[in-house]
Amino acid sequence: MLLPLTIGIAVAGFLMLLWGFALTAAKLGRPMTREEFEQLSSRTQILSPGKRFSKARFWGKHKGVVVPEMEWRFQDMKAAWRTGTWWADPVVRRKYLITSGGTTCILSFFALLVVAVGPPSVKLILGCALLYASVRLTWGFWRA
After folding, report:
1. Axis-axis angle for helices 120-143, 90-116 (nearest 10)
2. CB-based contacts of 92, cutoff 8 Å, min separation 6
3. What is the DSSP letter of 32?
4. Contact indicator for 109, 10 with CB cutoff of 8 Å
């Protein structure tokens, strides 16, 4: 009974996160230049296993979007909630969508692991990690 619920919440959080990123890219993004695309692809290739000193080369068409920075502090989030600008300003609304979607996704995936894993010792460790993450997140938001 808990497994479908946690899967549903995890998928909903992931879709909120993905939808927020897609909206941000569509509304605020600008097309990538060829140099930005090559720089991004070479950074990605460095992180992948394989040859470390290889150069990324791409032929043909390329497409990418550069979005502005979307980071913000808990203080900004609380101030936007108190003043009501989170509902009026579309940029702040997208930030809320991305933040709430990411938080829901991460915490519900922890909860999904707690529900899905069989051994009680692993459930205890994952449950403690979920509780710790929730308490630290709440404490940080409360103190902001």
Report:
1. 160
2. 80, 85, 86
3. P
4. yes
Per domain, the residue ranges of the chain are 2-28+74-143, 30-66
The contacts of residue 38 (CB under 8 Å, 6+ apart) are: 56, 58
**Cα distances (angstroms) measured from residue 48 to each of 12, 35, 37, 62, 67:** 29, 20, 17, 20, 23
Rounded to whole angstroms, the Cα distance separating 108 from 126 reads 12
| Residue listed under structure tokens 């009026």 | 88
Q: Left if phi > 0, otherwise alpha if psi is -120 to 50, otherwise beta: which for 18?
A: alpha
In this prediction the pTM is 0.76
pLDDT in tens, 33-92: 878 877 777 766 555 555 555 555 666 677 778 888 888 899 999 999 999 998 999 989
The dihedral through the CA atoms of 85, 86, 88, 91 has a sign that is: positive
List beta partners, residue 66: 30
What letter represents residue 139's amino acid? W
Both tokens of residue 20?
Answer: 């927020």
